[in-house]
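Revision sheet: structure tokens.
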Amino acid sequence: MRGSLEAVLKLSAVGVEGPRHQGQAGGEVRRHGKQSGTVCLSTQKVRVKKLRLRKKAGG
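Predicted:
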């Protein structure tokens, strides 16, 4: 279950950021590491790791 939730979070981040390109300047949003978090499903809390995104201009 945790793997599928992390995959959905990653797809969401790629949708905002766009695909990664080695050696090319990125767009408005860049990756900024990973962060632990929880997702609530019905009566369960599932621990997940999610990508952190930041705007290129800061913030």
